[in-house]
Zinc ribbon domain-containing protein (Halorubrum ejinorense), 47 residues
Amino acid sequence: MTTVHFTCSDCAQTIEVNDAMRETILDAGCPVCTAAATKEDFVATCE
């Protein structure tokens, strides 16, 4: 199973996200500090 984590480059908050959350963060920014997010802020890991 693949897990995706978002880490904000501004506030360093890390959260596990699903596909819908990933798209929302890319559109709206970090849910904590609203900093712009890029695809590089997401890391997928296999469990």
